[in-house]
Amino acid sequence: xxxxxxxxxxxxxxxxxxxxxxxxxxxxxxxxxxxxxxxxxxxxxxxxxxxxxxxxxxxxxxxxxxxxxxxxxxxxxxxxxxxxxxxxxxxxxxxxxxxxxxxxxxxxxxxxxxxxxxxxxxxxxxxxxxxxxxxxxxxxxxxxxxxxxxxxxxxxxxxxxxxxxxxxxxxxxxxxxxxxxxxxxxxxxxxxxxxxxxxxxxxxxxxxxxxxxxxxxxxxxxxxxxxxxxxxxxxxxxxxxxxxxxxxxxxxxxxxxxxxxxxxxxxxxxxxxxxxxxxxxxxxxxxxxxxxxxxxxxxxxxxxxxxxxxxxxxxxxxxxxxxxxxxxxxxxxxxxxxxxxxxxxxxxxxxxxxxxxxxxxxxxxxxxxxxxxxxxxxxxxxxxxxxxxxxxxxxxxxxxxxxxxxxxxxxxxxxxxxxxxxxxxxxxxxxxxxxxxxxxxxxxxxxxxx
Length: 450
Fold this sequence. Notes:
Number of domains: 2
Structural class: alpha+beta
Radius of gyration: 32 Å
CATH architecture of the largest domain: 3-Layer(aba) Sandwich
Order of helices and strands: EHEEHEHEEEEHHEEEEEHEEEEEEEEHHH
Helix content: 10-25%
CATH topology of the largest domain: Rossmann fold
Strand order of the largest sheet: 3-2-1-4-5-13-12-11-8
CATH class of the largest domain: Alpha Beta
Number of strands: 21
Protein backbone atom coordinates (compact mmCIF):
# COMPACT_ATOMS: atom_id res chain seq x y z
CA UNK A 1 0.00 0.00 0.00
CA UNK A 2 1.33 3.44 -0.97
CA UNK A 3 1.29 6.41 1.40
CA UNK A 4 -1.95 8.32 1.17
CA UNK A 5 -3.76 5.63 -0.83
CA UNK A 6 -7.49 5.85 -0.37
CA UNK A 7 -8.70 2.62 -1.98
CA UNK A 8 -7.05 -0.61 -0.84
CA UNK A 9 -9.39 -3.12 -2.51
CA UNK A 10 -7.72 -2.80 -5.93
CA UNK A 11 -4.25 -3.80 -4.69
CA UNK A 12 -4.81 -7.52 -5.20
CA UNK A 13 -6.68 -9.88 -7.47
CA UNK A 14 -7.64 -13.53 -7.04
CA UNK A 15 -7.56 -16.04 -9.89
CA UNK A 16 -7.37 -19.81 -10.26
CA UNK A 17 -4.55 -21.75 -11.91
CA UNK A 18 -5.10 -25.37 -12.89
CA UNK A 19 -1.98 -27.53 -12.96
CA UNK A 20 -1.83 -30.99 -14.49
CA UNK A 21 0.95 -33.34 -15.64
CA UNK A 22 1.36 -33.21 -19.41
CA UNK A 23 2.54 -35.68 -21.99
CA UNK A 24 1.96 -34.35 -25.48
CA UNK A 25 2.16 -36.99 -28.22
CA UNK A 26 3.60 -35.55 -31.43
CA UNK A 27 3.96 -37.14 -34.88
CA UNK A 28 6.36 -35.52 -37.38
CA UNK A 29 6.00 -36.61 -41.03
CA UNK A 30 8.77 -35.63 -43.48
CA UNK A 31 10.32 -36.74 -46.77
CA UNK A 32 13.94 -35.56 -46.65
CA UNK A 33 15.93 -35.01 -43.43
CA UNK A 34 16.42 -31.29 -44.13
CA UNK A 35 17.87 -28.98 -41.50
CA UNK A 36 14.44 -27.81 -40.34
CA UNK A 37 13.40 -31.42 -39.66
CA UNK A 38 16.62 -32.30 -37.84
CA UNK A 39 16.52 -29.35 -35.46
CA UNK A 40 12.76 -29.70 -34.94
CA UNK A 41 13.22 -33.36 -34.03
CA UNK A 42 15.97 -32.47 -31.55
CA UNK A 43 13.87 -29.73 -29.96
CA UNK A 44 10.82 -31.96 -29.46
CA UNK A 45 12.75 -35.06 -28.38
CA UNK A 46 14.53 -33.08 -25.65
CA UNK A 47 11.29 -31.59 -24.34
CA UNK A 48 10.33 -33.58 -21.21
CA UNK A 49 6.63 -32.91 -21.83
CA UNK A 50 6.62 -34.30 -25.39
CA UNK A 51 6.48 -37.92 -26.56
CA UNK A 52 7.83 -37.83 -30.13
CA UNK A 53 7.30 -40.13 -33.11
CA UNK A 54 8.85 -39.49 -36.54
CA UNK A 55 7.86 -40.82 -39.94
CA UNK A 56 10.54 -40.18 -42.57
CA UNK A 57 9.74 -41.07 -46.20
CA UNK A 58 13.22 -40.91 -47.69
CA UNK A 59 12.84 -41.14 -51.51
CA UNK A 60 16.10 -43.07 -52.09
CA UNK A 61 16.99 -44.74 -48.77
CA UNK A 62 13.54 -45.90 -47.73
CA UNK A 63 11.80 -45.41 -44.40
CA UNK A 64 13.81 -43.80 -41.60
CA UNK A 65 14.67 -46.05 -38.70
CA UNK A 66 16.01 -45.59 -35.20
CA UNK A 67 14.95 -44.06 -31.92
CA UNK A 68 11.57 -42.29 -32.08
CA UNK A 69 11.05 -43.42 -35.70
CA UNK A 70 8.04 -45.29 -37.06
CA UNK A 71 8.43 -47.71 -39.94
CA UNK A 72 4.96 -47.05 -41.35
CA UNK A 73 1.95 -44.80 -40.99
CA UNK A 74 -0.35 -45.94 -38.13
CA UNK A 75 -2.75 -48.49 -39.59
CA UNK A 76 -5.26 -48.68 -36.76
CA UNK A 77 -7.56 -45.82 -35.87
CA UNK A 78 -6.71 -46.12 -32.19
CA UNK A 79 -2.99 -45.83 -32.96
CA UNK A 80 -3.46 -42.57 -34.87
CA UNK A 81 -6.01 -41.16 -32.40
CA UNK A 82 -3.41 -40.96 -29.62
CA UNK A 83 -1.47 -38.12 -31.31
CA UNK A 84 -2.18 -34.62 -30.06
CA UNK A 85 -0.17 -32.77 -32.74
CA UNK A 86 0.89 -33.77 -36.27
CA UNK A 87 3.61 -32.00 -38.28
CA UNK A 88 3.42 -32.45 -42.07
CA UNK A 89 6.65 -31.35 -43.73
CA UNK A 90 7.55 -31.45 -47.43
CA UNK A 91 5.31 -34.49 -47.92
CA UNK A 92 2.57 -35.25 -50.41
CA UNK A 93 0.86 -38.08 -52.21
CA UNK A 94 3.93 -39.04 -54.18
CA UNK A 95 5.15 -42.61 -54.41
CA UNK A 96 5.73 -44.25 -51.00
CA UNK A 97 4.38 -41.24 -49.10
CA UNK A 98 0.88 -40.37 -47.83
CA UNK A 99 -2.27 -41.79 -49.37
CA UNK A 100 -5.69 -40.21 -49.81
CA UNK A 101 -7.14 -42.42 -47.10
CA UNK A 102 -4.41 -41.40 -44.65
CA UNK A 103 -5.07 -37.72 -45.38
CA UNK A 104 -8.75 -38.30 -44.64
CA UNK A 105 -7.82 -39.89 -41.30
CA UNK A 106 -5.62 -36.91 -40.39
CA UNK A 107 -8.44 -34.51 -41.16
CA UNK A 108 -10.84 -36.52 -39.02
CA UNK A 109 -8.34 -36.49 -36.17
CA UNK A 110 -8.12 -32.69 -36.30
CA UNK A 111 -11.80 -31.88 -36.75
CA UNK A 112 -13.31 -34.51 -34.46
CA UNK A 113 -10.71 -35.04 -31.75
CA UNK A 114 -9.25 -31.53 -31.41
CA UNK A 115 -5.72 -32.45 -32.48
CA UNK A 116 -3.39 -29.85 -33.95
CA UNK A 117 -1.97 -29.90 -37.49
CA UNK A 118 1.11 -27.96 -38.65
CA UNK A 119 1.95 -27.55 -42.34
CA UNK A 120 5.67 -27.01 -43.00
CA UNK A 121 6.18 -26.96 -46.81
CA UNK A 122 9.59 -27.28 -48.47
CA UNK A 123 11.34 -26.52 -51.72
CA UNK A 124 10.28 -29.84 -53.32
CA UNK A 125 6.68 -28.63 -53.47
CA UNK A 126 5.25 -31.99 -52.39
CA UNK A 127 2.43 -30.37 -50.46
CA UNK A 128 0.75 -29.22 -53.66
CA UNK A 129 -0.36 -32.82 -54.15
CA UNK A 130 -2.27 -32.53 -50.85
CA UNK A 131 -4.62 -30.04 -52.51
CA UNK A 132 -6.35 -33.03 -54.12
CA UNK A 133 -7.08 -34.60 -50.72
CA UNK A 134 -9.32 -33.81 -47.76
CA UNK A 135 -6.46 -31.80 -46.23
CA UNK A 136 -6.94 -29.08 -48.85
CA UNK A 137 -9.72 -27.38 -46.85
CA UNK A 138 -7.58 -27.36 -43.70
CA UNK A 139 -4.74 -25.41 -45.34
CA UNK A 140 -5.15 -21.81 -44.02
CA UNK A 141 -3.52 -20.15 -47.07
CA UNK A 142 -3.87 -20.18 -50.85
CA UNK A 143 -0.69 -21.35 -52.59
CA UNK A 144 0.63 -20.18 -55.96
CA UNK A 145 0.42 -23.23 -58.24
CA UNK A 146 2.67 -21.58 -60.86
CA UNK A 147 5.70 -21.62 -58.54
CA UNK A 148 5.67 -24.91 -56.65
CA UNK A 149 9.33 -24.77 -55.57
CA UNK A 150 8.82 -21.54 -53.63
CA UNK A 151 10.81 -18.33 -53.70
CA UNK A 152 14.51 -18.03 -52.83
CA UNK A 153 16.10 -14.95 -51.31
CA UNK A 154 19.64 -13.76 -52.03
CA UNK A 155 19.72 -11.87 -48.73
CA UNK A 156 18.18 -12.94 -45.41
CA UNK A 157 14.60 -11.69 -45.12
CA UNK A 158 12.91 -10.96 -41.78
CA UNK A 159 9.55 -12.02 -40.39
CA UNK A 160 7.34 -9.14 -39.25
CA UNK A 161 4.70 -9.71 -36.58
CA UNK A 162 1.20 -8.48 -37.26
CA UNK A 163 -1.02 -6.87 -34.64
CA UNK A 164 -2.46 -10.29 -33.81
CA UNK A 165 1.03 -11.79 -33.68
CA UNK A 166 2.27 -9.24 -31.14
CA UNK A 167 -0.39 -10.32 -28.64
CA UNK A 168 -0.45 -14.05 -29.41
CA UNK A 169 0.92 -16.53 -26.88
CA UNK A 170 2.13 -18.62 -29.81
CA UNK A 171 4.70 -16.02 -30.89
CA UNK A 172 5.70 -14.77 -27.44
CA UNK A 173 9.48 -15.23 -27.27
CA UNK A 174 10.16 -12.62 -24.58
CA UNK A 175 8.97 -12.07 -21.04
CA UNK A 176 6.32 -9.55 -22.08
CA UNK A 177 4.57 -8.14 -25.15
CA UNK A 178 6.67 -4.96 -25.14
CA UNK A 179 10.00 -6.67 -25.82
CA UNK A 180 8.59 -9.37 -28.09
CA UNK A 181 8.57 -7.36 -31.39
CA UNK A 182 12.20 -6.37 -30.83
CA UNK A 183 13.19 -10.03 -30.35
CA UNK A 184 11.53 -10.98 -33.62
CA UNK A 185 13.34 -8.14 -35.42
CA UNK A 186 16.68 -9.49 -34.16
CA UNK A 187 16.04 -13.09 -35.24
CA UNK A 188 18.17 -14.34 -38.16
CA UNK A 189 16.31 -14.11 -41.47
CA UNK A 190 15.28 -16.81 -43.93
CA UNK A 191 16.44 -17.54 -47.48
CA UNK A 192 13.36 -19.41 -48.76
CA UNK A 193 9.63 -19.16 -48.27
CA UNK A 194 6.55 -20.94 -49.60
CA UNK A 195 4.67 -19.45 -52.59
CA UNK A 196 1.72 -18.00 -50.67
CA UNK A 197 -0.85 -15.85 -52.47
CA UNK A 198 -2.99 -14.86 -49.47
CA UNK A 199 -4.60 -16.18 -46.30
CA UNK A 200 -8.02 -17.81 -46.48
CA UNK A 201 -11.10 -16.34 -44.86
CA UNK A 202 -11.32 -17.00 -41.14
CA UNK A 203 -7.55 -17.41 -40.79
CA UNK A 204 -5.42 -15.33 -38.42
CA UNK A 205 -2.11 -14.03 -39.78
CA UNK A 206 0.56 -13.84 -37.07
CA UNK A 207 3.62 -12.93 -39.17
CA UNK A 208 4.29 -11.76 -42.73
CA UNK A 209 7.27 -11.41 -45.05
CA UNK A 210 9.22 -8.33 -44.01
CA UNK A 211 10.15 -7.33 -47.58
CA UNK A 212 7.84 -8.92 -50.15
CA UNK A 213 4.30 -7.83 -50.96
CA UNK A 214 1.75 -9.28 -53.34
CA UNK A 215 -1.44 -7.88 -54.83
CA UNK A 216 -3.21 -8.77 -51.56
CA UNK A 217 -0.62 -7.11 -49.30
CA UNK A 218 2.38 -8.53 -47.40
CA UNK A 219 2.94 -12.26 -47.93
CA UNK A 220 1.53 -14.20 -44.93
CA UNK A 221 3.98 -16.83 -43.65
CA UNK A 222 2.75 -17.72 -40.16
CA UNK A 223 -1.00 -18.34 -40.23
CA UNK A 224 -3.44 -20.14 -37.93
CA UNK A 225 -7.00 -21.28 -38.45
CA UNK A 226 -9.53 -23.32 -36.47
CA UNK A 227 -10.67 -26.57 -38.06
CA UNK A 228 -13.63 -28.23 -36.41
CA UNK A 229 -12.57 -28.91 -32.84
CA UNK A 230 -8.84 -28.60 -33.62
CA UNK A 231 -6.36 -26.02 -34.87
CA UNK A 232 -4.15 -25.66 -37.94
CA UNK A 233 -0.87 -23.76 -38.26
CA UNK A 234 0.97 -22.91 -41.49
CA UNK A 235 4.72 -22.24 -41.25
CA UNK A 236 5.84 -20.86 -44.62
CA UNK A 237 9.63 -20.78 -43.99
CA UNK A 238 12.22 -23.52 -43.46
CA UNK A 239 14.76 -21.52 -41.46
CA UNK A 240 13.48 -21.51 -37.88
CA UNK A 241 16.58 -23.53 -36.98
CA UNK A 242 18.67 -20.43 -37.73
CA UNK A 243 17.15 -18.76 -34.66
CA UNK A 244 19.73 -20.67 -32.60
CA UNK A 245 22.53 -18.42 -33.85
CA UNK A 246 24.23 -16.77 -30.88
CA UNK A 247 21.57 -17.86 -28.37
CA UNK A 248 21.54 -21.66 -28.81
CA UNK A 249 18.11 -23.11 -27.94
CA UNK A 250 16.68 -19.99 -26.24
CA UNK A 251 14.13 -19.03 -28.93
CA UNK A 252 14.06 -22.14 -31.13
CA UNK A 253 13.10 -24.57 -28.35
CA UNK A 254 10.69 -22.12 -26.77
CA UNK A 255 8.82 -21.50 -30.03
CA UNK A 256 8.30 -25.16 -30.92
CA UNK A 257 7.45 -26.04 -27.32
CA UNK A 258 4.78 -23.34 -27.33
CA UNK A 259 3.47 -24.57 -30.68
CA UNK A 260 3.06 -28.14 -29.39
CA UNK A 261 1.30 -27.00 -26.22
CA UNK A 262 -0.88 -24.41 -27.92
CA UNK A 263 -2.05 -26.86 -30.58
CA UNK A 264 -2.87 -29.59 -28.06
CA UNK A 265 -4.18 -27.49 -25.17
CA UNK A 266 -7.90 -27.81 -25.90
CA UNK A 267 -7.64 -31.56 -26.51
CA UNK A 268 -6.01 -32.09 -23.10
CA UNK A 269 -8.21 -29.79 -21.01
CA UNK A 270 -9.74 -32.79 -19.24
CA UNK A 271 -8.69 -36.31 -20.14
CA UNK A 272 -9.58 -39.66 -18.60
CA UNK A 273 -9.15 -43.31 -19.54
CA UNK A 274 -12.34 -43.57 -21.59
CA UNK A 275 -13.50 -39.96 -22.08
CA UNK A 276 -11.77 -36.76 -23.15
CA UNK A 277 -13.73 -33.55 -22.49
CA UNK A 278 -13.17 -29.98 -23.66
CA UNK A 279 -15.45 -26.97 -23.55
CA UNK A 280 -15.83 -23.44 -24.93
CA UNK A 281 -15.64 -20.79 -23.57
CA UNK A 282 -13.08 -21.84 -20.99
CA UNK A 283 -13.93 -19.05 -18.53
CA UNK A 284 -17.62 -18.25 -19.13
CA UNK A 285 -19.53 -15.42 -17.52
CA UNK A 286 -23.02 -15.82 -16.03
CA UNK A 287 -25.53 -15.88 -18.87
CA UNK A 288 -23.14 -17.53 -21.34
CA UNK A 289 -23.83 -20.84 -23.06
CA UNK A 290 -21.07 -23.45 -22.75
CA UNK A 291 -20.51 -25.96 -25.53
CA UNK A 292 -19.28 -29.35 -24.34
CA UNK A 293 -17.33 -31.60 -26.71
CA UNK A 294 -16.30 -35.11 -25.75
CA UNK A 295 -14.37 -37.96 -27.33
CA UNK A 296 -15.20 -41.43 -26.04
CA UNK A 297 -13.18 -44.62 -26.51
CA UNK A 298 -13.86 -48.31 -26.16
CA UNK A 299 -11.77 -50.51 -23.81
CA UNK A 300 -9.23 -51.09 -26.63
CA UNK A 301 -8.61 -47.37 -27.11
CA UNK A 302 -10.48 -47.06 -30.41
CA UNK A 303 -13.10 -44.29 -30.85
CA UNK A 304 -16.45 -45.39 -29.46
CA UNK A 305 -18.83 -46.31 -32.29
CA UNK A 306 -21.90 -47.31 -30.27
CA UNK A 307 -22.84 -45.93 -26.89
CA UNK A 308 -23.68 -42.74 -25.03
CA UNK A 309 -21.81 -40.12 -23.04
CA UNK A 310 -23.49 -38.41 -20.09
CA UNK A 311 -22.29 -35.45 -18.07
CA UNK A 312 -23.53 -34.91 -14.49
CA UNK A 313 -23.47 -31.19 -13.78
CA UNK A 314 -23.38 -29.66 -10.29
CA UNK A 315 -24.03 -25.92 -9.99
CA UNK A 316 -22.36 -23.71 -7.35
CA UNK A 317 -25.60 -23.69 -5.32
CA UNK A 318 -25.76 -27.51 -5.27
CA UNK A 319 -28.31 -28.04 -8.06
CA UNK A 320 -27.61 -31.10 -10.19
CA UNK A 321 -28.64 -32.10 -13.68
CA UNK A 322 -27.65 -34.71 -16.25
CA UNK A 323 -26.81 -33.79 -19.84
CA UNK A 324 -26.91 -36.52 -22.47
CA UNK A 325 -24.41 -35.56 -25.16
CA UNK A 326 -25.45 -36.07 -28.76
CA UNK A 327 -23.27 -38.24 -31.00
CA UNK A 328 -21.90 -36.50 -34.07
CA UNK A 329 -22.19 -38.11 -37.48
CA UNK A 330 -18.64 -39.46 -37.54
CA UNK A 331 -16.73 -42.62 -36.67
CA UNK A 332 -14.45 -40.84 -34.22
CA UNK A 333 -16.52 -41.16 -31.06
CA UNK A 334 -17.33 -37.44 -31.01
CA UNK A 335 -20.16 -36.12 -28.81
CA UNK A 336 -21.40 -32.61 -28.05
CA UNK A 337 -23.91 -30.80 -25.89
CA UNK A 338 -24.70 -27.37 -24.40
CA UNK A 339 -25.81 -25.85 -21.15
CA UNK A 340 -26.24 -22.34 -19.78
CA UNK A 341 -24.28 -20.74 -16.93
CA UNK A 342 -26.65 -18.85 -14.63
CA UNK A 343 -24.49 -18.46 -11.51
CA UNK A 344 -20.89 -17.42 -10.88
CA UNK A 345 -18.66 -19.92 -9.13
CA UNK A 346 -17.36 -23.43 -9.72
CA UNK A 347 -19.45 -25.79 -11.86
CA UNK A 348 -18.44 -29.43 -11.40
CA UNK A 349 -18.64 -31.87 -14.32
CA UNK A 350 -18.58 -35.65 -14.16
CA UNK A 351 -18.48 -37.43 -17.55
CA UNK A 352 -19.05 -41.14 -18.11
CA UNK A 353 -19.29 -43.31 -21.23
CA UNK A 354 -21.57 -46.30 -21.74
CA UNK A 355 -20.13 -49.46 -20.24
CA UNK A 356 -17.18 -47.70 -18.60
CA UNK A 357 -16.19 -49.43 -15.39
CA UNK A 358 -13.21 -47.21 -14.61
CA UNK A 359 -13.29 -43.94 -12.70
CA UNK A 360 -15.42 -41.24 -14.39
CA UNK A 361 -13.77 -38.10 -15.71
CA UNK A 362 -14.18 -35.20 -13.29
CA UNK A 363 -13.36 -31.56 -14.03
CA UNK A 364 -14.73 -28.11 -13.26
CA UNK A 365 -15.60 -24.86 -14.99
CA UNK A 366 -15.07 -21.58 -13.16
CA UNK A 367 -17.60 -18.87 -14.02
CA UNK A 368 -16.21 -15.51 -13.00
CA UNK A 369 -19.05 -13.05 -12.56
CA UNK A 370 -18.91 -9.34 -11.88
CA UNK A 371 -19.51 -8.23 -8.31
CA UNK A 372 -22.82 -6.36 -8.35
CA UNK A 373 -23.71 -3.66 -5.87
CA UNK A 374 -25.96 -5.00 -3.13
CA UNK A 375 -29.47 -3.58 -3.06
CA UNK A 376 -30.82 -2.11 0.17
CA UNK A 377 -27.47 -1.38 1.76
CA UNK A 378 -26.97 2.02 3.47
CA UNK A 379 -24.92 4.63 1.64
CA UNK A 380 -21.51 5.69 2.90
CA UNK A 381 -21.58 9.50 3.08
CA UNK A 382 -17.92 9.70 4.09
CA UNK A 383 -16.91 8.08 0.81
CA UNK A 384 -19.14 10.42 -1.19
CA UNK A 385 -17.76 13.40 0.70
CA UNK A 386 -14.21 12.30 -0.11
CA UNK A 387 -15.12 11.93 -3.81
CA UNK A 388 -16.61 15.40 -3.86
CA UNK A 389 -13.50 16.81 -2.21
CA UNK A 390 -11.16 15.16 -4.69
CA UNK A 391 -13.23 16.34 -7.66
CA UNK A 392 -13.54 19.87 -6.19
CA UNK A 393 -17.30 19.53 -5.89
CA UNK A 394 -19.79 19.80 -3.08
CA UNK A 395 -21.98 17.27 -1.31
CA UNK A 396 -25.60 18.06 -0.43
CA UNK A 397 -28.28 16.20 1.48
CA UNK A 398 -31.64 15.16 -0.04
CA UNK A 399 -33.41 17.92 1.89
CA UNK A 400 -31.24 20.55 0.20
CA UNK A 401 -32.40 19.79 -3.35
CA UNK A 402 -34.82 22.76 -3.37
CA UNK A 403 -32.01 25.12 -2.40
CA UNK A 404 -29.83 23.64 -5.17
CA UNK A 405 -32.54 24.42 -7.75
CA UNK A 406 -32.72 28.02 -6.50
CA UNK A 407 -28.95 28.40 -6.71
CA UNK A 408 -28.93 27.14 -10.28
CA UNK A 409 -31.79 29.50 -11.24
CA UNK A 410 -29.98 32.45 -9.67
CA UNK A 411 -26.88 31.92 -11.75
CA UNK A 412 -26.22 34.76 -14.22
CA UNK A 413 -26.73 34.23 -17.89
CA UNK A 414 -23.57 32.83 -19.44
CA UNK A 415 -21.62 35.13 -21.66
CA UNK A 416 -22.17 34.46 -25.34
CA UNK A 417 -19.43 32.52 -27.00
CA UNK A 418 -17.57 34.39 -29.71
CA UNK A 419 -16.10 32.62 -32.69
CA UNK A 420 -13.67 34.81 -34.60
CA UNK A 421 -12.69 33.90 -38.13
CA UNK A 422 -9.68 35.78 -39.60
CA UNK A 423 -10.83 36.86 -43.06
CA UNK A 424 -7.33 37.18 -44.40
CA UNK A 425 -6.67 33.46 -43.87
CA UNK A 426 -10.14 32.15 -44.76
CA UNK A 427 -10.53 30.10 -47.92
CA UNK A 428 -13.57 32.15 -48.98
CA UNK A 429 -11.46 35.31 -49.06
CA UNK A 430 -8.91 33.72 -51.35
CA UNK A 431 -11.68 32.34 -53.55
CA UNK A 432 -13.36 35.74 -53.81
CA UNK A 433 -10.07 37.39 -54.80
CA UNK A 434 -9.46 34.77 -57.48
CA UNK A 435 -13.00 35.26 -58.87
CA UNK A 436 -12.74 39.05 -58.87
CA UNK A 437 -9.36 38.99 -60.57
CA UNK A 438 -10.75 36.53 -63.13
CA UNK A 439 -13.74 38.81 -63.88
CA UNK A 440 -11.42 41.83 -64.14
CA UNK A 441 -9.09 40.00 -66.54
CA UNK A 442 -12.00 38.75 -68.69
CA UNK A 443 -13.47 42.26 -68.83
CA UNK A 444 -10.18 43.68 -70.09
CA UNK A 445 -10.09 41.02 -72.79
CA UNK A 446 -13.62 41.89 -73.99
CA UNK A 447 -12.75 45.59 -74.12
CA UNK A 448 -9.63 44.88 -76.17
CA UNK A 449 -7.26 46.03 -73.50
CA UNK A 450 -4.33 43.67 -73.44
